[in-house]
Structures are given as C-alpha cells and as structure tokens.
Records
---
Amino acid sequence: QNRRQLAQQLGQKVAVNGFNIHYERVGTGQHTVLLLPGGSTRTDFGAQLETMNREAFTLIAWDPPGYGYSRPPERDWNDYYRRDAKVAAQFMKALGVAKYSLLGWSDGGSTAFIIAAANPLSVHKLVVFGTNAYVSAEDNRLLLDIQDVNKWHPKARQAYEDVYGPDVFRRLWADIIAAQLRYHDICRSDLAAIKQPTLILHGDRDPLVDPMHPEYLLKHIPSARIHRFPTGGHNIHMTFCDEFNEIVEQFLLQ
C-alpha cells in the first residue's frame, strides 16, 4: 500500500483556525505525544506510528498547514514556523488534549521549540532531532547541495511523490528552498523559556544540519541533554528506528 492509501485509511481531519488539518492517531497510552514532521506525517513518521509502544503512548502526527494532506490551501511561507506552532497548540486543544509531549524532526523541531516555550503548562517533555534555532551560512550551503531532486535517491524522492505527485512536489520543494534561504533567526529567543526536560538527538553525519546546532541547543535550553548517533544522518529515526524509539520512549517515561 502506498502512502496515499494509508493516509486515507488512517487519517482524520479537524478544522483549526481556518485550516483543515489532517492527522493520524495510534495507541491508547496515557502519555500523548504530538509528532511534528519536517514535512508531512506519511513521509516522515510512518516508522514511529507503526513501531512505537502503543500501550504506553498515544501518538498523534499531523500535517502542518499546506503540507501533506492538510491541503488546500497551499503552504503560506510568511513566518511559517510561528504560524505552525500556534496552529499546533490550537490543534491539540481542538482534540481535547490538555497535556502532551513533543517529538519534532527538522523544521518540526524548530516548531517544537516555539510551542514548548509558549505553552509551559501543556507541554510535558520535548524531543528534537535534525533541527536548529537559527540558519547559518553552512546550513544554506548544505541545503543548496540537495535542491536538485533529480539527484536524490529514487526511493527518497518517491516518498514525497507518493503524497504530492511529481509536479506538485517539485514546485513545493523549490518553494521550501527559497523560504529557507530567507531565514536567519528562527527561534533563538525562545530557547531560554523552554523549562521542560529536553532531549536532543543528533546524527553526527547529518548532511543538512551545521554541526554547531546541537551544541548551541544544549547550551541555551536550560534542561537539555543530548544523545548522539555517531554514524547517523538526518533521518536517524528511520535508519536506527529501534534504537531511536527505545531512547525516546525511555526519556518520555522517566
């Protein structure tokens, strides 16, 4: 089954602040975790939805406005990190979830920082990976290295084409590149306000994240710790799925 069929079978919709948000929910555990993708649920978090402990956790993965199946409308690139953070908090209220932890990857990690800082009574714990609070010149160089999707591994490209279709994905990716290159400071001022226990996971061979970022986050988030995957890349939750899930679950249940 492809990602579109799975999304149709497992997905639900809820209206939030003018957006028709698509999400998937699995598990019956008392500890609710909001999964914040860099793109969409089906391209980013299928492995966690399928393999994390469903008795201990209730996992809710969303497609941010304009991504995945939370379309239409198409993505608005104006201050989108803070918009996503605001809509995500409203989304959890709409689902009736008062307390939850956050698991954020890539752009979803940046969004998670803003949510945690702004909602100290709602967010229990924070796990982020492959993410940053600002954009460096090195980040831009790394991003430009992957702007041509024809050079991607076919399997990686197919994951996005299954969700968007080839033409829409190529337009979206060009828009993502252009939007990212305009950013400098994403949420550095929010980090000091994050009082929740925070776990930073990092692949030391991440081809998209300046190596300075995990150290910067560790220094500026008061209750942060770090776990490194020495041979890991950007998608450690996929390539090291079992180890990744175990580390995340242990941290969240402590």
---
Amino acid sequence: AMLRLRLLTWDVKDTLLRLRRPVGQSYAAEARAQGLRVQPEALERAFREVYGAQSRRFPNYGRGQGLSSRQWWVDVVKQAFVLSGVQDGAALTALAEKLYRDYCGSHNWEVLPGAEETLSRCRQRGFRMGVVSNFDNRLENILSQCSLRHHFEFVLTSEAAGVAKPDGRIFEEALRLGGVPPGQAAHVGDDYTRDYRAARAVGMHSFLLRVAGQDPEPEVPPEHVLPTLGHLLARIEK
C-alpha cells in the first residue's frame, strides 16, 4: 500500500550536504594562509575532542547558558588550535572568526549526489517539505548558498528549537510547522538513532540513508533503507 504522506522532513549534514574536505584540512589551510604552521591530522583530532567537550558542557550551542552559537563555535575553533600547539592568541581570534564565516556558505559545503534531483521530484509530487537538523542558525544561509533553500517550507535547527535530535520535541515542532499528523509525515536522514529511530518514536515514518560500505542496521527493514536518495520515491510509492 502506498504511504499517504503529506510532509517530508530532511536531515542536512551527510544527507543533503557534506563537507568538501575534513575539518582538519580546511582549518590547517586557513591557518597556513595566515602564516601559522599546524598539522591537519593534529587539528582534526583536537577538533573532535574539543567539539565533544563543548557539546557536553554547553549543549545545543550554549543556547540555554547565554552563549551565542557564534561565540560557541569561535571558542571551539580557538581551543582546537591551542590544543594543536598554536600559541598566538590574537591571531587565533581573527582566524576563528574567519573560519566561522567560511562555514556559512558553499565554499566548504557541497550538495550530495542525487539530492537536488530528489528534492525537485518530491516537490513536483506535491509533498510539503521541511528541514530538521542538529545545526546552528547558519543553516538557512548555507542552504541558500548551496541552492537548496527554495525546496523547503521551513528550516528547523536544534538551536531554534532549543532541543536536538533524538529528542522527539524537535520532530513534534516540525509536525506543527508542517501542519500534519505524524502518520502523514516521513523523515529522511543518515543517522540510525537521531534520524530513523527518533522520528519513528513520535509516530512518523522514516527512511535511513545508508552510505555504501556501512554495516546494515539489523532493526531496519530493507524497505526503509535508501542505498541512495534516488530510491526514496520508489520506497514511498511502493
């Protein structure tokens, strides 16, 4: 039986957009342009460590603790460089501000294969469309710069919602914005816990995008798995 869906919600990172290159490489290249020597691998490790610690200490970009997401990110970038052995504090502030701006656009992001075509076809079929993403408030601008924003009626970030996936309240807010009950909505994403299971927990349908070579999730029926985004409409209309 064909699913009676009216709303499709979408994860962004590694579902519709991906980083053009690893964070460590981008950060190191920008540092080199400012005359600072630092190893990409060291920066990558430092970034992951600092990002994890900052996320635990100030969840959701510090929203509940009076930090702006910009300040949250600038702190992360500076700490990652310090942990990688860069000492020059004044240079680091300017560098971190520039990197924060650089990640606002298509300079560092690229559209995943099949994303544009799939979004266009879904809109042509008359689905209402929205974004549900654990992201800060730069996301609107990033989607616009990457020419995807026009596909969506709304862009709901965890920063705006005040909660992050897998918290069901972000999906409930998306359903409110989309004006449909959960049984008439499906979420598309690449993360088993934050996307697939979290959406189903509030009564939505969901589809899990699996990158080639990833181990299959045993709890996900094959008809809910997308080997590519191009498989989505066939799954919905089966």
